[in-house]
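As promised in the previous annual report, we have extended the structural survey to additional targets. Below is the entry for Translation initiation factor SUI1.
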Amino acid sequence: MPRDSFKTVYSTEKPVCRKCGRVDCICGQNGPAASGPIRVGRETKGRKGAGVTVVTGLPLPEAELKALLSDCKKRLGCGGTLRNGVLEFQGEHRDTLLAFLKDRGISAKKSGS
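The corresponding structure token record, generated without further manual editing, is:
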């Protein structure tokens, strides 16, 4: 049977491109893509109860994420950081961030309650 007819259920190996057959895709088919919709939420997990606002799913290169982080921190008047492609801001700023991202042309959704 051809390789494309099998669907992997679970694997500990790195994903292989179906077009070029390599882990480090050279054909460009598996380029950087969004990991889903852009979400603005609040988390306290692993922070000793301190709440942070997180923005996930932004499909931007790291340089643009850093520039956006800087602009957001200036607008919010708070500290923040970039961790693994996720923007984190100190405090509760979901509504303000949603309005700021909308002004910048980025459609985002509020996550959580």
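The mean pLDDT is 80. The beta strands are 39-43, 52-56, 80-83, 86-90, 109-110. These points will be discussed at the next consortium meeting with the crystallography subgroup.
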